[in-house]
Design a protein that fits this description.
Mean pLDDT: 75
Helix content: 40-55%
Structural class: alpha+beta
Largest sheet: 5 strands, antiparallel
Number of helices: 7
Low-confidence stretches: 38-80
Length: about 230
């Protein structure tokens, strides 16, 4: 369904038993792949247990070319395959603002790797306290990671149907509160500093909750199809 929505065309034709995909080759001959459901109580081909399954049958012209069980891959393998990316997928994920990013992809492809890199660099440099300050290497690392971090986070916002205005507003409030709060503290303006850091204390948890905790909006939205690997 997600593929049909992204291409804005109908690929599969529904019938009483399942789906039919019709294909036309370069010579104009037409074939079809029939996919129909089997009862969920039956064992799959591996005998692993009672799972629902689908059977595919390929027909070209008037000839039947065989059939077989189409089984969904184990959940763990599916999750590992959703994490591993090709070079094209890396460029699309980290450097293109187009599309949406699911919660799982955000955790495993951005948030946890960035956190691990910063912790590893802090351990190598022996820098665990705020008084130690940021080193040159830490500044270089975070400057390099900032563009993909903002791009992927922006797509995570779009995954929840929040557009560029919402994203810019969140980032503006957080950055503005940090700058105003630090200047107010340095200038001895305690009231302004308290207000700024209060705003920051409310904005940051809301930001983290949105990008780290909320699941994808089900189905397609204005920014693209559902990005989850198991989306129908």
């Amino acid at each position: 369904r997600a593929l049909e929505e992204s291409l804005n065309t109908t690929l599969f034709h529904r019938h009483a038993r399942g789906l039919i995909l019709t294909i036309t080759d370069a010579r104009g001959e037409r074939g079809r792949l029939e996919i129909f459901a089997k009862p969920a109580a039956r064992l799959d081909a591996s005998g692993a247990g009672p799972h629902g399954r689908a059977v595919g049958m390929l027909k070209w012209g008037r000839q039947e070319h065989g059939s077989g069980t189409l089984r969904r891959m184990p959940f763990g393998l599916e999750r590992r395959k959703s994490i591993i990316m090709t070079r094209t997928e890396i460029a699309q994920f980290y450097f293109s603002p187009v599309g949406r990013v699911a919660r799982q992809a955000y955790w495993f492809r951005l948030f946890l790797p960035v956190l691990a890199l910063n912790l590893a660099l802090a351990a190598v440099e022996g820098r665990w306290t705020a008084e130690a300050g940021a080193s040159v290497w830490s500044s270089v690392l975070n400057a390099a990671l900032l563009p993909p971090f903002l791009i992927v986070t922006y797509k995570r916002f779009k995954d929840r149907s929040f557009g560029p205005r919402h994203f810019a507003g969140f980032i503006g409030v957080i950055v503005g509160a940090v700058i105003i709060g630090r200047r107010a503290v340095a200038a001895g303006q305690g009231t302004v500093g308290i207000i700024a850091f209060t705003v920051l204390a409310m904005a940051v948890p809301a930001f983290l909750y949105l990008v780290l905790a909320l699941p994808s909006q089900a189905g397609a939205n204005a920014y693209g199809p559902d990005p989850r690997p198991d989306a129908a």
